[in-house]
Every structure is written in C-alpha cells, then in structure tokens.
C-alpha cells in the first residue's frame, strides 16, 4: 500500500537533505552523532515544551528534530552504508523519541482532563511500539515486513500537525489527530501481521 508521503515528496526532501548531509560529513560529524542529537532535540520539544502545554513550540521543535531521521540515514548511505551498531542505535533512539512524544501528549491531555484524548495518546504509544516490534520480529525470522500506511516520520507529522492546530486554537484538532493515528497504527499492525502470515504460509514449517 502506498505510504502517506509519496515517493515524489520524499525525493524532494532528499534534494534538500543531501547537501546538508555532505556538509556535516565534511565537517567530521558522524551519522550516529546526528541520531543522538535528533533524539535529544525531540526529548526537549516533547518533555520540556509539549508536556507543559507549549504545543506550538513543542510541535515545531519535535518536527524539526524528527526530520534528522532522514538526515542520518542519508549520511550513512553517503559514507558507505549503515553499520550494524548504527542501525541498532537509530532504531533504539527512535523508540525513545516516540515514547517521549506520546507520553508527553498523554500527560498534558490528562492534566487538561481530556480523558478521550489521553486514551488515544496511550493507544498510539502502545500501537506505535507494536508496529515497530512486528517488523523487527519478522525480519529477525528472515522475512520482510515493509508494508504499512504510515511510517514513523508520517506518524510524528500527524501528531505534530494536531498539536500545532490545537496550539493555534482549533478545537479537538489534537484529539482527532490522535484517534486517526491510533486507527492507522492498529491497521498497520494487522496489515503487517497478515503480510508475514502469507510469507510464512509460502515457506512452510521450519
């Protein structure tokens, strides 16, 4: 199934990211350093701003640093490919950042007495982790799992747009974004499990 961000949009982003990646590599910055810096930036935006109700500033900071996920991958490719540790670090930092974002959103909504929004944020937190786990487990068993409606960048942008609109006074924007994202994440889990099931049926018992 096509991703929310189509190939042409990603290609456009790549044209912007590649010159930055080249400059950082020439300056001696490593992809792993960008990965860790991006995660720290997301933590500041989510926990330092979003959890305290500064939704516009928090969403902008989180979105900016979340886009480093494209940057470190481009840097790794330009420098000869990702190392095993680099891939492990990137995946681990992604889980930390995602947990901080949705944990911060759930915390703020709970302080505002928005029980439905809090529930949606917690579903997004759990389902987002499950989306990643299903893929990792499938690949660990030697199968592919590159399917799903929205990848990590799209998921963060959806909640970021919801946060921005709520910060600018649009009623229920964040809650609607969270429920949309919860539905997309749950659907993606089912989609990936079905994809792996079909592969396992073709391979047969091991």
From TrEMBL:
As cofactor, the record names: Mg(2+)
Reactions the enzyme catalyzes: a CDP-1,2-diacyl-sn-glycerol + 1D-myo-inositol 3-phosphate = a 1,2-diacyl-sn-glycero-3-phospho-(1D-myo-inositol-3-phosphate) + CMP + H(+); 1,2-di-(9Z-octadecenoyl)-sn-glycero-3-cytidine-5'-diphosphate + 1D-myo-inositol 3-phosphate = 1,2-di-(9Z-octadecenoyl)-sn-glycero-3-phospho-(1D-myo-inositol-3-phosphate) + CMP + H(+)
The lineage's top-level taxon is Bacteria
Q: Does the keyword Magnesium apply?
A: yes
Q: How is the cofactor bound?
A: Contains a di-nuclear catalytic Mg(2+) center.
Gene3D superfamilies, from UniProt? Answer: 1.20.120.1760
Residues crossing the lipid bilayer are 116-136, 156-189
Catalytic residues (positions): 94 (proton acceptor)
Q: Which GO terms describe its biological process?
A: phospholipid biosynthetic process
Q: How does it assemble?
A: Homodimer.
Q: Which family does it belong to?
A: Belongs to the CDP-alcohol phosphatidyltransferase class-I family.
Q: What is this protein called?
A: Phosphatidylinositol phosphate synthase
């Amino acid at each position: 199934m096509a991703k929310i961000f189509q190939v042409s949009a990603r290609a456009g982003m790549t044209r912007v990211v590649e010159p930055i990646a080249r400059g950082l590599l020439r300056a001696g910055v490593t992809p792993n350093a960008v990965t860790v810096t991006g995660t720290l930036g997301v933590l500041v935006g989510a926990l330092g701003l979003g959890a305290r109700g500064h939704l516009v500033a928090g969403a902008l900071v989180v979105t900016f640093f979340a886009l480093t996920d494209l940057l470190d991958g481009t840097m790794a490719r330009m420098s000869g490919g990702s190392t095993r540790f680099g891939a492990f670090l990137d995946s681990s930092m992604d889980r930390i950042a995602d947990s901080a974002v949705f944990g911060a959103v759930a915390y703020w909504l709970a302080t505002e007495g928005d029980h439905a929004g809090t529930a949606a944020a917690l579903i997004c937190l759990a389902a987002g982790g499950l989306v990643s786990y299903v893929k990792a487990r499938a690949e660990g068993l030697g199968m592919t799992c590159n399917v799903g409606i929205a990848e990590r960048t799209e998921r963060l942008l959806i909640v970021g747009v919801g946060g921005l609109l709520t910060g600018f006074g649009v009623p229920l924007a964040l809650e609607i974004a969270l429920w949309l994202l919860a539905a997309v994440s749950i659907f993606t889990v089912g989609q990936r499990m079905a994809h792996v099931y079909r592969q396992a049926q073709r391979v047969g018992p091991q």
